[in-house]
Structure formats: structure tokens, C-alpha cells
Predict the structure.
Amino acid sequence: MTIINHTHETGNRNEVTGTRSARKRQNDAKEATMTDGQRNARLDPYFNKLKRWKEEFNLLREIVLECGLTEDFKWMHPCYTHDNKNIVLIHGFKEYCALLFPKGVLLKDPHGILVQQTKNVQTARQIRFANVRQIEELRPILKDYILEAVEAEKAGLKAEVKREFEIPGELEQKFAEIPGLKAAFESLTPGRQRAYILYFSQPKQSKTRTARIEKFVPHILAGKGMND
């Protein structure tokens, strides 16, 4: 009996040891994934000169870099990549600042914090903040979401994009006002059309949408995309 009990106890200890080892391996793997990324010195002036959301942006920068991403600057915003794949951007708006995940639709979002900015935005999702306290409270959750976005890229997951999109009324009005504008727009590649539509549709106020459209009318007539 003693031998049997001893064997049973030894087995239990082995199971516990094995469980602890497995947990340690998981933690080690997570820590390896979380190796801090390097600050891009070229972006320091941008962060230092911020007049709005300065503290929030710097905290978000710190959190993202703790996830081991590469810091860059794209589309006039701090952008963080993994193997040259865009993972998350830091955005600032009048009423909130945000982390923007270009493929946020792929994230599971167990905490229900992802926001679809407008109905025309198909794949991108935001996490919005009004102050530093909100960011600090979500800090571990934000890291989980960022690392999930990295894993989605590693796995080669693709976000389904519907080719149909709704043209804002202000653009339809410009089509009627400016000869050749509609034909020029329709001759653009679907990707360029969509980029314009998303950009034009973002503002809540009609006058702002109109101003954006008027700014890019020459580009469209010249057959150019937003970034050409």
C-alpha cells in the first residue's frame, strides 16, 4: 500500500510540476512576444509638439511599443507594424483619441470595446479613449488586442471586403455640378475609389465632407488616388 500511495503521490507531484512547466513555457513565450519595440527618433518631435491628447498619445505609444512592434509614420499618423504589416495606428479626434486596427474586424473583442467608425468602414476598428485614466485601466486588455492582431497577421488571415459602398450625397452633388468628374471617378481602380469614399464619408458634418471632396476634385480629374 505504501508503494502504491507513494507512486500516486509522485504522479500527482509530476502532474503539478508538468502544469507549472507548461505555464512557465506559456509565460516565457508571451514575454518573448512582448519584447519592447524601439522608438523611432524621427517621431519624437511629432509626439513632443502635440497640443491635444499629448499625454494620451505618449501613453499609447508606450503600450504599443511594449508589444514589440516597429514604429513608423503613415497617413499622417503614428503607425506600428510587424514584419512590415500594419497592426495599429494612433489617431486623435476632437472628442476622443484612439487605437485604430486596420483589420480590427478579425479580432474577437471579448470586452466589446471595438468601434466601427462609420457604416462605410468595413475592416478597421477603433478603441476610443477620452483620458489617460481610461487607457491605464485598459492597459493589459489593449496589449491582448494588439498581440491578437499580430497573430492574425502571422496566420495570414484576410478581412472580407465587400466591393459595394455607398457614395455620399455630397459627392453625388459634385458629380452633377462638375462635368467629367463622375466618369473620372468611375475610371479609378476600386481601391482608389474606396479610399476616397471612406475619407469623404468620415466627417459628421456635411460642410466638412464637401470641403474634403472639393480639395480632391483635381486629383480625381487627373486620374490620381489620394496618395498619388
The first helix runs from residue 2 to 33. Helices lie at 2-33, 44-48, 54-65, 132-154, 169-177, 181-186, 190-201, 206-221. Residues 131 and 137 are 11 Å apart (CA to CA).
